[in-house]
Design goal:
It comes from Anaerovirgula multivorans. This is HTH-type transcriptional regulatory protein TyrR. This protein has 471 residues and is an alpha/beta fold. The chain folds into five domains: 1-25; 31-125, Beta-Lactamase (2-Layer Sandwich), CATH 3.30.450.20; 159-331, P-loop containing nucleotide triphosphate hydrolases (Rossmann fold), CATH 3.40.50.300; 334-406, Orthogonal Bundle (Helicase, Ruva Protein, domain 3), CATH 1.10.8.60; 423-470. The chain has 19 helices and 14 strands. The strands form four sheets. It has a five-stranded antiparallel sheet with strand order 2-1-5-4-3.
Length: 471
Amino acid sequence: MEEKEKDFLLQELKQYKEIYEESKLILDSTVDFISIADDKGVFLRISKGAEENFGVSDDEILGQSAYLLEKKGIIDKSMTVVVIESKQKEFSIQRTRTGKIFMVTGIPMFDEVGNLKKAINISRDITEVEKLNHRLKETEELLDWYREELHRKQELQENFIIGENPIMKKVLNLIKQVSTVDATVLLQGETGVGKSLIAKTIHKMSHRREKPFIQVNCGAITESLLESELFGYSEGAFTGALREGKKGFFEIANKGTLFLDEIAEIPLHLQVKLLHALEEQEIYKVGGSTPINIDIRILVATNKDLRQMVKEGKFREDLYYRLNVLPVYIPPLRERVEDIPILTHFFLKKYNEKYCTNKKLTLESHNTLTSHFWQGNIRELENAIERLVITCDKDYIESEYIYHNLFNIKEEPNIEVRGIIPLKEATKEVERQLLLKAFKKYKTTRKISEILEVDQSTVAKKLKIIKEQKR
């Protein structure tokens, strides 16, 4: 070999070595992991970091097939394999055995006649980015939860569904829980405990709060009209019907909440239709044969014992169990006496603002209201406070004014029995006068029961009887 040719080859070899060293430096210096494989998927070159990224050494990758690495579970999906099969540029997310997450770009390389020659992968580590995205998602979900909880709490407070009584606190927690699901809720309790208000609050705290809330008092609609009012009627269903027919409350409440108050008043023949609507989420109009799909949440309320009505054959058993998915019992005011001052303050503020007054209750007045037997529960208490705000002409509402003008109870001057009367009647009269004197002096049933050494419930019942006799 001539000296000139030898020098040329050495020079060329030197250039190739420089190119190799430069490319190796680039491969090892880049933040991305780069791999080069032939058309069979065998790795020819890789940048450093194989062990950190894949849990294997460089030697365990170089000369190995991408198909084999995928089979061994070193990577979940080989971009080299994808590029070889598609023969075009590809993008994908790749997860490795070590828990790393890469955004991989696969680039095919062709020879001069268009045959696939090599597959080059550029892998960018996005593990920390994915972790941050995951944390961000968790934080957003937590913020959404806090927003919902704050909204529910505000709804409870704004609608005076408040209380310190342990039983009522459990009810409040239950209301918050049932508001998040679409199951049927059965509200039970005496007249005036706030069943309608709680139904509205459940709706306002639910995901349906932007949709209609339709309240129907089943006891206020005559039996002959109830079916058409609930389910609507078709064109020409009966004499006097609108020509175009009419939507019922089920259709009007679609996507929202339908509250059926006094559910015990629905007649037996309509209970079958109601059960079908609950189970199938579809209704039939009066005079119609085509089912209408509905998407509503059903809330019902009653002050009657539905279980007893089932035993008496006045209420369908299957409907009872369908309604009794989430029962909520709202206690009467006499079972949550400690909540009366809170409610009193709320109503006093409400009606002072309504009538532009600034009436206040004395401590004795608060005790008088707290000790009263509120047969009409919250509704009666609210009406009483409104009446006191309107009728009392003084800034401070005294206890004497309350039991004279609100309760119509007036004290007798002395405990005495006039004339000869049967002993039983005399005993009742002495008891009546004694209770009135004690009420005048001590104001609360709790204190009266201590002084007279009888149960508080006995005092409350007897005072209630005296009040009714005075009317």
